[in-house]
Structures are given as C-alpha cells and as structure tokens.
Amino acid sequence: MIKLFRNIRKKLLSEGKTANYLKYAIGEIVLVVIGILIALQINNWNEHRKELQKESVIVKELYKELQQNLKATTKHRQQIEEINQEVLFLLNISDDSLKLLTNEDLNQHIFNSSLISPFTPFNQKLKRILAIENFGFSHSKTLVNELQDYNNSIEGISSINLSARDVFKNRMVPFLSENLSLKNLMHEIYPEKITKNDSIVDVGPIIKSMAFENLYADLFASYTSYIFALERNIELTKNLITHIEKAYPSVISTK
C-alpha cells in the first residue's frame, strides 16, 4: 500500500501535475490521520471494555460480601437482643419473681446476660474499593458515597462493640468475681465439665443491690445503643444490595 502511494506521487511529479500532487498529498495525510483516529478509538474502546469487565468483577464480589455481611450482622443483632433481654429481665426483676427463682436459675440468667461476642464484619472487598483513588461506578454516581457511609457504620459498630466488651471485662467480670461464684456460673453451661461449688451464695440479694442495678442499667444502655447501630447498618446493607441489583441487573443475574 505504501509502495502504491509512492508510485502515484512519483507519477504525478513526473507529469508536472503539481496541483494534483498537492491535492493527493493532502488526501493521503487526511487518510493517515483518520487511520490514527480510528486506531485510537479502537484502543479506547478496548480499554473501556476491560475497565467494564474489571468493574463487573468488583460489583459481583461486593454484592456477595454485602450478602454475607447482612446475614452475619442480622445474626449478631439477634444475639445482642437476646443478651439485652436477659439484662432487662434482671434489671426489672420483682421481689415476687425473685422468690420463684432458684440460685441456679439466677446464675443461668446472669451467665446469659454476659455472652457478648466480637463483631467481625466482612469488609475486605469494601476497603479495597474505597482505597482505590478516584474509583467510580459507571452505572451509579452515588454508590461510592453510599459505600463510604456504610463503611463508617461498620467502624461505628466495631467501636461500640469494643466499648461493650470493655464494660464486661472491666466492670462486670470484677463485680461477678467479687460477689458470685464464677464456677457455679460456668457449671450452668458446662455441668459435665465443671463441678458445682457447694458453698451457698444467695444470688437474690446481690441482684437487688444498688451496685448490680447500676451495672445492669449501664449494660442495658450500652446494648440498646449497640442494637440501634446494628439495625441502621442492616438497613444500609439492604439498601446497597437493592441499589446494586437495580444498577447492575445483568451482572447480578449471573451470580
């Protein structure tokens, strides 16, 4: 092709057709420019296609992680709610109800009120996305901001969880160790492994003490705030899942 163009130029020059030669040269330049532009457009298209493929993988991973987190956070909220119900039961227990419960029953309720566990979110994909500078979703202008709010919610929950566990570790455990038989508390859960302490500890008066009341009022406030934060996170998670399903139906349909 290049040889053909060269021969045409030589022929035009040899025939003295300068004007025609200039027109041809300009036309040849235009063709070259058009070819370059087409090549650039194809390259841009290929790069855009690769970016969309990469985005599809990210969306699939994020969608799966959100579903995992929704399941785990919902389960954790139920656990905290059950613990808080035990706290509320002991905090509001009446004298008449207290007479109907044995020390073993009360130990069981106290143990159940102290089962706070760590909060372990699934957020590795989320952190990776937020760490990519200037990352955006082609089908949604607001998704990144919503993910940031979601991440802030997770960090808030983790902070509240640590605070609740600190109350348990620094206040509840010392109080129970000083006033009750921890061995008997553990015996209620592991009767085949831990023998009962035969020393009688009357649990009722301890539960009705001001120190116990203040401790459990603090626990109730802490757990109630924790449950509220978990519920907000669950709502954010559901909204994000719905958002992704609407913005990326073709991607989600292949999950």
TrEMBL record:
Alphabetic keyword roster: Coiled coil, Membrane, Transmembrane, Transmembrane helix
TM ranges: 21-42
Pfam (any one): DUF6090
Coiled-coil stretches: 49-83
Keyword Transmembrane found: yes
InterPro entries xref list: DUF6090
Name of the protein this chain belongs to: DUF6090 family protein
Organism expressing this protein natively: Flagellimonas yonaguniensis
Source organism phylogeny: Bacteria, Pseudomonadati, Bacteroidota, Flavobacteriia, Flavobacteriales
